[in-house]
Amino acid sequence: GAMGPDMEPLFQAWSYFRRRKFAQCSAICSRLLEQAPGEQVAGPGWETGHPARARAAAWSLKTRALTEMVYVDEIEVDQEGIAEMMLDENAVAQVARPGTSLKVPGTSQGGGPSPAVRPVTQSGRPITGFVRPSTQCGRPSTMEQAIKTPRTAHTARPITSASGSYPRLGTASMLTNPDGPFIHMSRLNLAKYAHKPKLAKALFEYIFHHENDIKNALNLAALATEHAQFKDWWWKVQIGKCYYRLGLYREAEKQFKSALKQQDMIDTILYLAKVYLRLDQPVTALNLFKQGLDRFPGEVALLCGIARIYEEMNNISSAAEYYKDVLKQDNTHVEAIACIGSNHFYSDQPEIALRFYRRLLQMGIYNCQLFNNLGLCCFYAQQYDMTLTSFERALSLAENEEETADVWYNLGHLAVGIGDLNLAYQCFKLTLVNNNDHAEAYNNLAVLEMRKGHTEQARALLQTASSLAPHMYEPHFNFATLSEKIGDLQRSYTEAQKSEEAFPGHVDTQQLLKQLREHFAML
């Protein structure tokens, strides 16, 4: 209910904190801290029984409130910068065995659909059903591609580690405290705080999450773990997190393993698996998760971790099995439902996919992506009455131009399917209006231009498409076919080779290359 005017301020602040009203909590704590020690605090008849202790409590509560305002769960955040990707010093094997590395996605071991059916991201993996941090950081093959990516592709993007979800040094304090930083890092005597375990933990989280000052956080954690005689597993996990952020993965691994020996925690297993994935050892991470499942049977986070790794290694059928296990434990797990749905869709079972997406709709998820997927499922399941209404809803819910572009692109695809090429042309044009870097739309426009006999326009569009998305085989193959028709055999051959590189199992490319080789042999 409403708080009475005579409520004890510290208790009121704590109540605000518990209800996640961090700004009000921080404001009350600030007022308490601004009073001179020993002074009576506003509120009739309430005097601080122990002024120093009350101030310490207010200080600790304010640190926690400020931390919670900018807190990001470290397990889910995973962003590799260009530098970490291209200058990776932790590579264990330069040429890894097939199926043991995430850098070289194996040809689908689990009988997943080919790139002809299921589009791939820049890092060569099939598009998953759910956007998550690890799908955002595929490893580009060349430096040029790495630098081009952030402006073009919307998946597999390399960004600098300083950007993204971590606040830059000192910016969070400006946002949450306009008067200046609440704690001056340079004046802190870390050794003093390390001897007060209750304050030290709140202070560590503040330095790590709010100030993003990893080195000071690491110093504090090292002093505190020493004070706890290396018996507190929590500090070991925090030191591991600091090492991970600083790129010292082997040191982080030691800390997490040591923490697991003292206290078996699911979070620690997830952190350790993150280290192994960054070191490109997915098989070790899988084994770790499976050992974790022996100790924590049916734990959703571990099952989901295994499914993600299988998906990244292109083993789609095993991933689907584990996602089904996730749903047995938690039948409202959005990621699992979305991934199983997209898997059914690309396995030519749109009716089953429709049931999964409908389930998401029943759970109260109401966004552009879901209606876009519903529209596509309805179209392929021949429920044409629902298709256009779903896409209209998707367009009205789109939050940015990229989403709008994707919906228009799918509408164009639908128009091609029902044979209305003029509508398709308009839709692909609208796609490019919303997103000038949409390679698929350039490719499909080129095909429509070819049908009209406009060879030059088609060539220009295909060149744009293949430079924007070197990982897609369609623009290369179409360009090769077009060049062969107009007699430019050399260009046709180089493009066909690029197409073969992007999708080795494409039969039409193989036939074209064979024809061209025969031509050249005759010459």
Describe the 3D structure.
By secondary structure, the protein is mostly helical. It has a domain at 437-522: Tetratricopeptide repeat domain (Serine Threonine Protein Phosphatase 5, Tetratricopeptide repeat, Alpha Horseshoe). The chain contains 26 helices and no strands. α11 (249-262) packs antiparallel against α12 (266-278), α12 (266-278) packs antiparallel against α13 and α23 packs antiparallel against α24 (473-485). The longest helix has 20 residues, at 51-70. The chain is elongated and about 95 Å long.
The average pLDDT is 85
Task: State the distance separating the first and last CA atoms.
Answer: 90 Å
Query: Mind describing the biggest β-sheet?
Result: none
CATH fold type of the domain at 437-522:
Serine Threonine Protein Phosphatase 5, Tetratricopeptide repeat
Oligomer: single chain
Question: Can you identify the CATH superfamily of the domain at 437-522?
Answer: Tetratricopeptide repeat domain
CATH class of the domain at 437-522: Mainly Alpha
The poorly predicted ranges are 40-48, 157-164
Rounded Rg: 28 Å
Region (Disordered): 103-129
TPR repeats: 368-401, 439-472
Organism: Crypturellus soui
Pfam families: TPR_16 (PF13432), TPR_19 (PF14559)
List the keywords.
mainly alpha; 523 residues; Serine Threonine Protein Phosphatase 5, Tetratricopeptide repeat
